[in-house]
Amino acid sequence: MAAEVLVFNLLSGIAIVSAAAMIMMRNPVHSAIALVITFVNVAAVFIMLRAEFLAVVQIIVYTGAILVLILFVLMLVNPDELPDFHGARPMQQIFGFGLGIILLAEIAVAILTRTVVAEPGPWTEDGMAAVGGNVQAIGQVLYSGYVLPIQATALVLLAATIGALFLGRPDEDEEPTPSRRTVATISLAHTRGSDQDEIPALSSANIKHEAGDRDLIMARDADEFTSTPEDDQKGQQE
Amino acid sequence: MNELMPEHFMFLSAALFIIGMVGVLTRRNVLVIFMCVELMLTAVNISFIGFAWEFSQLTGQIFALFIIAIAAAEAVIGLGIIMALTRQRDTVDIDEVRELRQ
Q1: CATH 1.10.10.10 applies to domain A7-83+128-151
Q2: pLDDT digits 0-9 by tens, A64-92
Q3: How many Cβ atoms from other residues are within 10 Å of residue A233's Cβ?
Q4: Which residue from A minimizes the CA distance to B53?
Q5: Does the distance separating the beta carbons of B83 and A168 come in below 8 Å?
């Protein structure tokens, strides 16, 4: 049994150290990686506590989904805008660490002086093995006594999805910036080699009607078809 | 203590929760504060699962399952708010965001 305690202490030690590293790291990406290490170690602790299903869910949901989402958002945020941890906020940090130490002392006293007495339930290691394992045991208990909470959770997840779509939509009042067009010539027919005998009259009135807002260049021969507004301005300046 | 006792995981849970709390109180980056909140939720899960193991019950594990589901929903909403915030203010510094205070 001593080996079990040793493994537990090792796992929890790594978890606590990397959690402490998470709040100390200057770079938020390093914080996220330290949090991954913490979560994986916590999942291992879950396995030690006969919660294999929750260990897998912990890794899939937390390290697989939530942290990848956080990393994506980190990439979208401008890194120059990130505030420093070691900035000029000494009062805030002293207050935070002091409050943490006080709370730790309180909880330590509470843990060491109190004992919890309760009736042991039926789900010992043998009881779980009788129904086929941890997943089967959780399924039995969950879908017999907690059907309504499951449906409420489904509603919450649906509302969260809709809320995320609502929060992530683009602003309505913001006009999309028009992309600049580089070539603004309109070719109606090629003058040389064209099988048409005569070109329809190029009057600026009926072309403008079709071109909309674009810059319009009236091309008189084929070489002009490749010209751009920049070339025209250069030619005018010369 | 030669055997795995409830004190072990209670202390692990308390340590992780307090580290998360200190992070929320001291950091200024919204994303790191968000990660600290996730850490605190996990610390509570350790407590639940530990007591479920101690008393051979499954209720604690089921509560932890619901907490994980709600944490996923909370992550989606929180990151959506952070995205909206960075689009509007171009900052993730929590001290810069004071519209609600004024």
Answers
A1: no
A2: 999 998 888 888 876 665 555 555 578 88
A3: 10
A4: A49
A5: yes
